[in-house]
Amino acid sequence: MAVEQNHAEPTQEELHELRRIRREKLQELQDAGNDPFQQVRYSRTHYTKDIRDGFDALEGKRVSIAGRMMSKRIMGKASFSDLSDRYGRIQLYVKRDVIGTEAYQAYKKLDIGDLIGVEGEVFRTQKGEISVSVDKLTLLSKNLIPLPEKWHGLKDTDMRYRQRYVDLIVNPEVRDTFEKRSAIVREIRNFMDSRNFMEVETPCLNTIPGGAAARPFITHHNALDIDMYMRIATELHLKRLIVGGFEQVYEIGRIFRNEGMDTKHNPEFTTIELYQAFTDYEGMMDITEDMIVHVCEKVLGTTKVTYQGIGLDFSKGWKRMTMADAVKEYAGLDFMAMSPEEALAAVRAKGLEIEKGKDSWGDLLAQCYDEYVEENLVQPTFIIDYPVEISPLAKRKPSDPRLTERFELFVAGRELANAFSELNDPIDQRERFERQVALRAAGDDEASMMDDDFVTALEYGMPPTGGMGMGIDRLVMFLTDSSSIRDVLLFPTMKPLAD
């Protein structure tokens, strides 16, 4: 029995020879008038999943399927192959006496990775495997580069991201991750639509980067002869729409930030931002929790998942905790009982390095939170009531003007969502923008620019509004047990290979 399967990665010399042989096979086909690249359409009646799931009804029936040949086991006058399509694999039984001598010889010359269409009868082998007995086979496209057998180790992981098309061919679990990603986005839309939110689109190119503290990508518009910025958030345009009377809006779209890359960050990523008039950050906590619970139940069938060995429970009833209380619990510092001077002395006593210009009570509270708290927040937790210094777009708490009505959602020590009772006071907003401008002038290139038009919009009057932004890539990571953001982006940003 001859078995054609990949068992080890070929050397570069062997790979070159294999590619040469496949090119020769292609030339032979073309010379004989059977150019596979001239195939324009193939009609199939079923997918592999249809046959597996509906075997009882399809046994003995004729089907037509198409996909990639992933193995070939030559056994004299009869052979077996595995065909893979979008929904999985199925075994093919190819017999010379059924398909014909000439067609059988052509089948034996096929290579693993070739795209084929087959027609035949559904049956079950003596070993119990659901299969298709082939009586007609069509070569639909030729594979010219041998498929890899295994992708392991750092080097191969790098190539998986660079050649995602190959990764998807040989690793079914990768395909499953992106099927789930698509389902997650679909269910987010379904949830938002069921709550009467309207989906909108806002500009990716802006004259002012706003809505977040991040370094933008800069480009140049030739016709206008001005620099423009890829958006770092969708917030300010969406809130303009609230001013205009669209009381419930959301956008799912790409965001671009010119920052570092690691397992949690990619220069372009996907978020959902939503805004609702006449509610606040507590309303946003409710809708965020409801949305994620809905997605878990619809996509996974459960609200309990395992992420990197950690059991996560997304069932309703998530913990809510103020930033000050979290710092008190994990750092032992009671900021609510401290004056600015006492807070500065306490933080210095902890040995923390304090950035120039960021020694206010609120900045110090935020620094202690980053240092001592985040990594401890494993189960879904809303951290609420952020200091005003780090929340330039959030409404102040009436009971304590040092704080804002803002929350961030943390899961497994990572931020997943950020939300506010949106600041709608144009005078306060201008003053906060001015503070950001001063920070930018002092060298903070992540600080916001002045957006006069947004302030003008607020002057027309924006109703009390709640808003929330969530990283969809991170949600997908949690729900697919993916350790790196690159595992949930079809084409992550990669440094070009050296020549």
Write the topology of this structure.
Elements: E1 2-4, H1 12-31, H2 48-53, H3 55-58, E2 62-75, E3 78-85, E4 88-95, H4 96-99, H5 101-108, E5 115-124, E6 130-141, H6 153-162, H7 164-170, H8 172-194, E7 198-199, E8 205-206, E9 218-221, E10 226-230, H9 235-244, E11 248-256, E12 268-277, H10 281-300, E13 304-307, E14 310-313, E15 319-322, H11 323-331, H12 340-349, H13 361-372, E16 381-387, E17 396-397, E18 400-411, E19 414-421, H14 426-441, H15 452-460, E20 465-471, H16 472-480
Helix pairs in contact: 6-7, 7-8, 8-10, 8-16, 9-15, 11-13, 12-13, 14-15
Provide a compact summary of the structure:
This protein is of the alpha+beta class.
Describe this entry's structure for a reader.
- This protein is 35% helix and 27% strand.
- With 499 residues, it is α+β, with helices and mostly antiparallel strands.
- It has 2 domains: 2-150, Beta Barrel (OB fold (Dihydrolipoamide Acetyltransferase, E2P)), CATH 2.40.50; 168-318 and 379-487, BirA Bifunctional Protein, domain 2.
- Strand 17 and strand 18 form a beta hairpin.
- The model is unreliable at 151-155 (pLDDT under 50).
